[in-house]
Amino acid sequence: MRILFTIFVAIIAFAAGVWYTGGFDTFPQIPNINQPATTPPVTNTSSTNTPTSTPPKATYINADANRIQVIFPLPGATVAPTFTVSGKAVGGWYFEASFPYEVQDAIGKKIAEGPVQAQGDWMTSAFVPFSLQIKVSGYKGKATLVLRNDNPSGLPENEASVSIPITIQ
After folding, report:
1. How far apart are CA 19 and CA 106, in angstroms?
2. What is the pLDDT of residue 7?
3. What does pTM read for this prediction?
4. Is 59-168 in CATH node 2.30.30.240?
5. Element (H, E) at 115
6. Greatest CA separation found in the chain?
7. Closest CA to 61 of 154, 155, 149
8. pLDDT tens, 120-151?
9. DSSP string, 117-161
10. Which helix (H) or strand (E) holds 3?
11. Is 143 exposed, middle or buried (0-12, 13-18, 19+ CB in 10 A)?
12. Are the C-beta atoms of residues 85 and 70 closer than 8 Å to each other?
């Protein structure tokens, strides 16, 4: 009886661990070798077909989502000329509780810039939230929001950024 109880507890612990780490969907799918492979149907590739495009993504340079996460705007979002940016960054992204941002037009010309202030104690290795309002005057169209780490050393190897493609109405 004691052995059955131990096995039962071990199975429950294993299932709880799998559930906690994201479930069984993280395991690779094994193809069914007993089922014949199917080929996609041949389609006419005339000029009336619309090309498929990949959704826009944030571009990280010397950074990743473990250092900064932008909650809004999402990549590809359409925003008003005055819009809110929110997210969180690790304390090392800030210096003296701020880091710089800029908005670039479609050709990379700077059309807005300023500081982003931490909304909490930035002297930590944990994430610290930020939120700010940005106003872009006299521009409509494709743009890029760039959030840069504050790099007081000025050394290129310490620079990091995340770029979010947006459209300003």
Report:
1. 44
2. 75
3. 0.68
4. no
5. strand 110-117
6. 77
7. 149
8. 999 999 999 999 999 999 999 999 999 999 99
9. EBSS--SSSSEEEEEEEEE--S--EEEEEEEE---TT--GGG--E
10. helix 2-20
11. buried
12. yes
